[in-house]
Amino acid sequence: MTLGNKSRLGRKTSSETKKKMSIAHTGRKHSEETKKKLSEIFKILYKEGKLKTLKERGYIHSLETRRKISEAGTGRKHSTTTLLKMSNSQTGKKHTEESKKKMSLSRFRL
Questions:
Q1: Exposed site from 26, 43, 67, 69, fewest CB < 10 Å?
Q2: Domain coverage including residue 49
Q3: Can you spell out the DSSP letters for the chain?
Q4: What is the spatial distance between Cα 93 and Cα 17, in angstroms, rounded to a whole number?
Q5: Does 3 fall in a domain?
Q6: pLDDT higher than 80, residue 6
Q7: Total structural domains within the chain
């Protein structure tokens, strides 16, 4: 009788084996079908509260990491299709009176 997928239960993977596995999987890409399946699974898990974002888990980037992320995005230009999508997503949305007041005050840095 075999143990099935529990044959490695409790065993540690050596760093050499991890490196071999990393090299073996480098460049591999999921098929479109697999991507769709994963997307559906993650949507369900998120709705059920079983999957949380980094922010929800309390993860905070260090100041240095935030600076690096900022520098990486600085000067980046969105494609025209992306700009159009962003524009369409905001079309028809109205700001509340409270948010209008906040925006007004922020202009004067009050």
A1: 26
A2: 32-71
A3: ---GGGTTTTPPPPHHHHHHHHHHHTT----HHHHHHHHHHHHHHHHTTS---TTTTT----HHHHHHHHHHHTT----HHHHHHHHHHHTT----HHHHHHHHHHHTT-
A4: 53
A5: no
A6: no
A7: 1
Q: What is the pLDDT of residues 19-55, one digit of tens each?
A: 999 999 999 999 999 999 999 998 898 888 888 877 7
- Phi/psi region, residue 32 (left: phi>0; alpha: psi -120 to 50; beta: rest), is alpha
Contact 47, 40 (CB under 8 A): no
Maximum distance among all Cα pairs of the chain, rounded to whole angstroms: 74
| Percentage of residues of the chain with pLDDT beyond 90 | 62
Per the domain annotation, does 59 fall within a domain? yes
Does residue 18 sit within a domain? no
Our CA dihedral for 35, 38, 43, 48, rounded to 10 degrees, sits at: 180
